[in-house]
Structure formats: structure tokens, C-alpha cells
Design brief:
The protein is mainly beta and about 500 residues long. The chain has nine helices and 32 strands. A hairpin with a 2-residue loop joins strand 11 and strand 12 (about 235). The N and C termini lie far apart (about 80 Å). Bound molecules: CU-O-CU linkage and copper (II) ion (2 copies).
């Protein structure tokens, strides 16, 4: 009996001989061999399944999410890793809803600690937003129902129990929430989920020698937030994705606890950002690099229509390889079109602003604060009137009252247009619940073009002041915070009530 392996060796030898004899015909074969070695050590990118409507009889989207413990095999060998997930061992299924639809969710806590489920980016009333004030205990079910009424966007969901958000997200609790509307559909953007419309939850992890996730073991993990040395996408270690010769849309979600990603392709190709946190930009923004802070999202289009069978494009962030794309056929080009006009975004209008508030972010690690205070579940920091438009000015002062070093750090931070890692480490992504806002100024200047659409999280660099324009259209108790989850957990958060 010939073993499989032997058979393979024989056929490979035959293939090589055949290729040597027919050099002009070797393209396909060479690709096959080459591609298999390219992919052999990689893992096919996992695509979170789309959630099914549990009650298609009514027009609402009815879903059940169970926050549960599980085991995930990241490396294919060795012990599986203890993780958390929704309806599975790591991350959760993707929720897709239509604007105008009601989302009706039952969330069951099967963990052995309190949790919440927060709809990050959703314009929803405070008690349905799932912030730290709305925890539910092990064994309990949190039921929530609200109409989705905001533009098409890539949002996400994750737990938010104060002091435990970082750990729960790090262990795997998070998922993608896609809102579609007539505008997004009529643009003829790639929308074949998992084929040319690819969700990507990008995270970084650290593993112990026995394959378990390591959380907060170094002092630095608390200071700068928990950063790992292994990137994963949708929970896939070292992922690859096969694409066709067409335009591919990626929905990028920075689901890491603390790491800012600077995404670019190894071949330095350009791509187009078409959406920011809260929806489509007015026009596609052509770029070679995209910065994404924890909590932020972006949708990009990457053109593989001019690629050839076997071409690769490797998405990276600094030293990390994030995703290797491989063009898998030579069939007809499917789509190569980018709509130039995406949506209408109302111009920034500050004439209706009734109030300015200032938020001073300062400190590091356990000393983090906003306006000199640390989060208190029982304190209300700001009162806002329903439907008011305000300007929130967010200042990153790094150390409270810190003089001197400041300008130096700033100079360093901006040297040659590149921000240095040290200064970068203390940039804080500021996030506001229950709203989508507009960034109107960065240090007195207009924000970059790709930050002129709807946002719910904005990265504030050391010694920078960012102004956002925000209208509060939902009632209730909410929070704003730094989306470095260890900063959030250590109190870089405040609460506000809209009524
Ligand atoms: Cu992404 Cu307060 O959350
Ligand atoms: Cu949020
Ligand atoms: Cu922070």
C-alpha cells in the first residue's frame, strides 16, 4: 500500500518534471504550488456567521446572544485556549439590520461574573445602550428592543461592566453589527457578506507558553493598556483570504484593547476609505495608510480587479502581518467600480450650539482621569438637554499640569509627519455613547478628510485639543470614556444624563 504522503511526493516529482518540460505552460501549476506554500502555514480567515432572525414572522430582527465560556484553538496544535464568546467560543455572530427595523435582542449571561452588552455606535436610549450602569448577573437575561434609525454603518457590540470591560473583551466578547439602508444598497458597493464584503475584527493578543491568553501581567499593560504580540483577525491567527478579481470591501474594526493600528499594504497600493465609524463618507478617500484606534471602524475598498491569478496583497500594521489576500482565479473581472458620490453629509453647522464643554484627559495607568476625576458609577458628571447641540472640546494633557516635556513630546510626536511610539502610546481614543458626532477641529485646524464624516470615537494625540460637534437625540444615562479599555476600567470615564 502506498501511503498518501508517498503518493504526494511522487505526484509532486511528476509535476516538477512536467513543468520543466513545458516551461511555457507552467504559470498555473507554478501558481498552484506557490500558492499552496504561501497559504500552507496560514489559516483561512474566519468569517463570523450572520445571525438569523429568530422570528421572521414580524418585521423586527429577533436575536439571542449568549455570553459564554469556551475553548478556541488558535494555532491548530497544542492546548486550546480558554476564551469567551457570544453563541460560540470566541467573538460573536454578525448582526445585520436595516435602517427602520427594530432590533430585539435577548442577551443571556452564562459567564460567572456580571456583564453588559453595549451597542457601540448605536443611537439608542441610555438604558438600552448597555453601558456600565446596566449590568446583569450570571444566569440573568437582559432583553432590549429599539428601532434602528441611523445611516448604514459598521458598528459593533461588546460588554461594558466597569472594571471588567478590558478582560471580557480581551477574552473574546465582541461582535460586528452592520446597519444597511437604501443609500448603501443603491450604491452597488460589494455586499456579498464573506465573499467581497469582509468583516475584520482586528486584535492583538499575548499567549502564555501553555497557550492561554495572558492579561495584565506587566506594569506596562496597565500604563499603556494591554497590548499583545500576536495579531488576530476574527480570532484567526496568521490569516489569509482568497479573493476574486474584483473590488473587495473590508469592514475594519479595531477591537483591540489598546493598540492603534496603522494599516497599509506591503506593496504600498492605494485603497479607498468609504466609511468612518458612523457611516459612509461623502466621497471615497484615497490613501495608502489608515490609522485605526481602539473602538474605531472604517470601511475600505481594495481593487483586485486588475490583479492576476496568484497575486497577493498583504495588509500590515508596522511589524504585524494582519491579513494576506490571494487572488484565486483568472475568471472574468467582476467589479471594478467605485462610486464617486457616496452619501450626503450635512455641512457642519455650529450656529445651533448652545453649550461648550471641556474634557481634560490626563495621566497614565492607575492615575488616568477626566477633568481630574475618576469614574464613579453613582456620580453624574454632565447634564445635557435633549436635542441640544454642543461642542465638546477634548484636551489630552497627558500629565496634569505637566509643563515643559509637553512641547518636546509634541515635537517628537509629530516629527517628519510620523508620530513616535512613545507619544503615540499615550494618545487616547475618546468615545461618546449613544451618539454620532462630527470632528470639527484638531488643534485649531480642520480634521483630515476621512474624519469629516460620522464618528463616535476620535483619537486625541498627546497635547492635542480636538473639538467635536454633537447633538444629543436620545434620553438616558450614558458614558464617555477613553477606549483604551484598561484606561476605561481604571476610571478614564465619565457619565452624562440627557433629559
Ligand atoms: Cu466601545 Cu463604551 O464602548
Ligand atoms: Cu460605545
Ligand atoms: Cu486612554
Amino acid at each position: 500500500m502506498i501511503s498518501q504522503k508517498k503518493l504526494f511526493v511522487v505526484s509532486l516529482a511528476a509535476l516538477i518534471t512536467w513543468m520543466a518540460l513545458l516551461p511555457s505552460l507552467d504559470v498555473t501549476a507554478a501558481f498552484a504550488r506557490d500558492a499552496s506554500s504561501f497559504i500552507s502555514e496560514k489559516n483561512a480567515l474566519k468569517i463570523p456567521p450572520l445571525m438569523k432572525d429568530e422570528d421572521p414572522g414580524n418585521s423586527a430582527m429577533d436575536i439571542t446572544l449568549r455570553a459564554m465560556k469556551g475553548k478556541t484553538s488558535f494555532f491548530g496544535t497544542g492546548n486550546p485556549t480558554q476564551t469567551l464568546g457570544y453563541n460560540g467560543s470566541y467573538l460573536g455572530p454578525t448582526i445585520k439590520v436595516e435602517r427602520g427595523q427594530t432590533l430585539h435582542a435577548k442577551v443571556i449571561n452564562e459567564l460567572d461574573e456580571d456583564t453588559t452588552l453595549h451597542w457601540h455606535g448605536m443611537e439608542v436610549e441610555g438604558h438600552k445602550d448597555g453601558g456600565p450602569h446596566y449590568t446583569f448577573a450570571p444566569g440573568e437575561t437582559w432583553e432590549v428592543s429599539f428601532p434602528v434609525d441611523q445611516p448604514a454603518a459598521t458598528l459593533w457590540f461588546h460588554p461594558h461592566p466597569h472594571g471588567r470591560t478590558g478582560k471580557q473583551v480581551y477574552m473574546g466578547l465582541a461582535g460586528v453589527l452592520i446597519v444597511e439602508d437604501d443609500i448603501s444598497r443603491n450604491l452597488d458597493l460589494p455586499d456579498n457578506y464573506g465573499k467581497n464584503d469582509i468583516p475584520m475584527v482586528i486584535q492583538d493578543k499575548r499567549f502564555s507558553r501553555n497557550g492561554e491568553l495572558v492579561y495584565l501581567t506587566h506594569m506596562m499593560d496597565r500604563m499603556h493598556g494591554m497590548m499583545g504580540d500576536v495579531p488576530v483577525v476574527n480570532g484567526t491567527y496568521n490569516p489569509y483570504l482568497e479573493v476574486e478579481r474584483e473590488m473587495v470591501r473590508f469592514r475594519l474594526i479595531n477591537g483591540s484593547n489598546a493598540r492603534v493600528f496603522d494599516l497599509f499594504f506591503e506593496d504600498d497600493r492605494t485603497f479607498w476609505q468609504i466609511a468612518s465609524d458612523g457611516g459612509l463618507l461623502s466621497n471615497p478617500f484615497q490613501t495608502r495608510v489608515l490609522t485605526l484606534a481602539p473602538g474605531e471602524r472604517a470601511e475600505i475598498l481594495v481593487d483586485f480587479s486588475t490583479s492576476q491569478y496568484g497575486d497577493r496583497a498583504v495588509l500590515r500594521s508596522r511589524e504585524f502581518e494582519i491579513l494576506a489576500c490571494l487572488v484565486n482565479n483568472n475568471e472574468e473581472i467582476k467589479r471594478s467600480f467605485i462610486p464617486w458620490e457616496l452619501t450626503q453629509i450635512e455641512p457642519v453647522d455650529t450656529s445651533r450650539v448652545v453649550r461648550n464643554r471641556t474634557f481634560i484627559l490626563s495621566g497614565m495607568g492607575p492615575m488616568v482621569s477626566i477633568n481630574g476625576r475618576q469614574f464613579d458609577l453613582d456620580r453624574i458628571d454632565e447634564m445635557v438637554k435633549l436635542n441640544d447641540t454642543e461642542i465638546w472640546e477634548i484636551r489630552n494633557e497627558m500629565f496634569q499640569g505637566g509643563p515643559m516635556g509637553g512641547n518636546m513630546m509634541r515635537g517628537m510626536g509629530r516629527m517628519g509627519g510620523r508620530r513616535m511610539p512613545m507619544a503615540r502610546a499615550m494618545a487616547h481614543p475618546f468615545h461618546i455613547h449613544g451618539v454620532q458626532f462630527r470632528v470639527i477641529e484638531r488643534d485649531g485646524s480642520a480634521p483630515p478628510i476621512n474624519e469629516r464624516g460620522w464618528k463616535d470615537t476620535v483619537l486625541v494625540y498627546p497635547y492635542e485639543t480636538v473639538k467635536v460637534l454633537v447633538q444629543f437625540q436620545k434620553k438616558g444615562k450614558f458614558v464617555y470614556h477613553c477606549h483604551i479599555l484598561e484606561h476605561d476600567d481604571m476610571g478614564m470615564m465619565g457619565s452624562f444624563v440627557v433629559e
